[in-house]
Design a protein that fits this description.
Length: 72
C-alpha cells in the first residue's frame, strides 16, 4: 500500500498534506456517515495508523491483514 510510503514522507510533501487534511467545519452530511478510506485503515491499524506505517515491517504485516479483511 502506498499509505506506508506516504506516512514516511516529510511533513511538507503535498501528498501527505492532502491525505491528512481535515475540513474546517469537520461535519459530515445528515444521515448515515460516509465511510472514508482512513476509517478502513483505522479499523486494521488503529487510530495511530500513520505512526504504525512508518515501521515497514509492522506495516507489511498489517497490509496483509487489510487485504484479507477486504476480500472476506
Amino acid at each position: 500500500m502506498a499509505h506506508g510510503h506516504m506516512a514516511r514522507e516529510k511533513q511538507e510533501k503535498w501528498t501527505r498534506l492532502v491525505t491528512e487534511w481535515c475540513p474546517l467545519d469537520g461535519r459530515r452530511s445528515r444521515g448515515r456517515p460516509t465511510k472514508r478510506w482512513e476509517d478502513d485503515l483505522k479499523g486494521v491499524a488503529g487510530p495511530t495508523w500513520s505512526r504504525t506505517a512508518k515501521n515497514r515491517t509492522e506495516w507489511k504485516t498489517l497490509e496483509e491483514a487489510f487485504v484479507v479483511r477486504q476480500v472476506e
